[in-house]
Each structure stands twice: as structure tokens, then as C-alpha cells.
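Sample A.
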Amino acid sequence: MTHQKVLFVCLHGAAKSVLAAADFERMAKERGLPIAAESAGTEPDPEIAPPVLAALKAEGVDMAGRKPTLVTREMAAGATRVVAFGCGLGAAAPDGDRIEQWEDVPNVSDGLPAARAVIRAHLERLLDGWSAA
């Protein structure tokens, strides 16, 4: 079985991409799909956003000690899919046209539930495509 991975990238690597990666892995597992997820940022913050840490911890996902990571070309090249939250990957962009942009996700700082609802709707669609393949 091939190892598949989705790379989620946002500007700071501290909120949207972290939520998307955590939710994607959980949702993929629920569907019996062996797909990993990774998060990164183009200008990573020093820490994951505290509201994101708290929301994930409340759901049993402990991100303590994890920090936002700078996206690299190797990370992008090793991913089956790359999803960006309205940011370009610059020099880290993979060859070809494999970056899907989710520009409609509200800022987590403007309301985590609203941002997460849009992320989850996108994740459902992304996973439906995998399930149908």
C-alpha cells in the first residue's frame, strides 16, 4: 500500500493548517483511509495558537510541545496533495499544479467555530474524492 499524505499550509502554521491536519487524520481514520496529514506555515509563528491547542485537547488531541513548522520543498514534494489557505508556497511549491487553495476559510482569530466549519466542509469533499477513487 502506498503511503499517502496531505500537506496543509497556512501563513503562520499555527491555526488553520493545524486544525485541518488534525481533523483530516481523524476523519480519514473514521473512513478507513490510511492517509496521513501534516501542517506547516510559510511564515511560522513560534507557537500553535492557544485556542487551537485548547479545542484539540478538548477532543483528545494533545499537541503539547508541537510547534509550527516552516514549509519546505521536500515536504510539498512528498505530499500526495497540498492544500493552502490563501497563501503561496514560494520556493517550496511543488512542480506542476498540485496546490489546492481554500481561500474562503475565515480567520480563526475571528471565530474558531466558523473557521472550523468551513475547514470540515472542505475536508469532507476532499475525503469523498479519496473514497470514490
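Sample B, a different protein:
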Amino acid sequence: MILSENLTIVIPTHNRHKYLARVLNYFKQENFNNILVVDSTLESFDAKNNYNIKYFHKPNVNFSNKMIDVFV
């Protein structure tokens, strides 16, 4: 069994806020606490919906650069 407090989930996304809300609701129910969302959509996602996440809004930044921004 994986202990959720020792696991960090990274979710890169672009133009998928509907699906992002869905996956965050799932992780919230499963009590995952360390979730990083890296979003390159022009409009930011409303991360205040009681999600326990760290949200990084990087509009129009490509995948590799937004990952570097988060991990460096």
C-alpha cells in the first residue's frame, strides 16, 4: 500500500479545466495531500474550491519549460 503522505502527484494540464476538477475531486476523496498542478491555459483554474494543491499558472508555456519552472 502506498502511503499518500509520502507521494507527490504532478498534474500538467492545458485547456482541460473540466477534467482537472474531476481528477482533483478524486484525489481529494482519496486523501492525497501533495498535489502540484502546472497549468499552461490562458485563463487560470479556480484552485480555491477546497482543493489541497499547489497551483502554478504558466500561460502558454510549453510542457518541458513549465516542468522546469516547477522543479527548479
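Observation for Sample B: Residues 1 and 10 are 20 Å apart (CA to CA).
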